[in-house]
């Protein structure tokens, strides 16, 4: 009974991470992605900080300045917004998110009301990509971990709507999971991931009169794409050597994780055992 009480208190404060001080607020650590906690709902809580910085770094490496406007599609619990809002000038951050509670919790636990009053970010809780409601054309558009859960018709709708609020030189960066086949379901899949070929994604955007290219920015998690209007088709970005190096390290870590998963599969484990036995017999 005492142990149970202790566990409840522990989860209520800093989760299961013994590395964090006892008075650390509830970061959702240990919860699976998709759980009803503002950090866990948008992905693995242990990656919350790094996915914040990865998005912020990408945009600033692509020359985002404080006077630019940013549309964050499916902004969730402001994983990117908690860095972008303080950086940008007032009324320059626009977040669209159907789950209002995520934004409310992010303001309560991450940002605080003062910064909202100073920076005046604009939010919409719509799920039909009605970007026109913001009455704005955006310099930058971000969609991190949206197409990795969306059915084709949703990506198509997003592409058509986003084209209307892009300027000739707007930069739109987004992620998806690249696969060899295309998700054919009609429902938003979460927390599961869905996969598309790059050719499919490219075609969806082309049909919305946009150009879609691969972006050489490896988050170690998903594949990034760069979407522009045809007028801006020659836009290119060169990441610094340091960034390239970091990206390679991230990619290597991601491959190591995948290898670990493959090696823990029962068939592979069995195969490895057989190989060891055969090696012993041979020598
Ligand atoms: C995996 S989370 C990513 C959130 C955020 N982009 C980030 O990186 O933290 C996916 C988000 O998309 C939101 N979402 C679901 N359907 C949507 C829709 N139709 N339009 C916009 N966002 C949607 C979810 O509520 C969720 O917050």
Which features would summarize this protein structure in a list?
283 residues; alpha/beta; Rossmann fold; 8-stranded mixed sheet; 9 helices; 8 strands; 41% helix; binds S-adenosylmethionine
Account of the protein in words:
- This protein has helices at residues 2-13, 48-61, 81-87, 100-111, 113-119, 152-164, 198-207, 241-263, 266-282; strands spanning 70-73, 93-96, 122-124, 138-143, 166-178, 195-196, 211-214, 223-228.
- Strands 1, 2, 3, 4, 5, 6, 7 and 8 form an eight-stranded mixed β-sheet that branches.
- The chain is built from nine helices and eight strands.
- The radius of gyration is 21 Å and the shape is globular.
- The termini are far apart.
- The protein has a single domain (26-278), classed as 3-Layer(aba) Sandwich (Rossmann fold).
- The longest helix is centred in the C-terminal third of the chain and has 23 residues, at 241-263.
- Helix 6 links the parallel strand 4 and strand 5 (166-178).
- The protein is α/β, with parallel strands linked by helices and 283 residues long.
- S-adenosylmethionine binds next to loops.
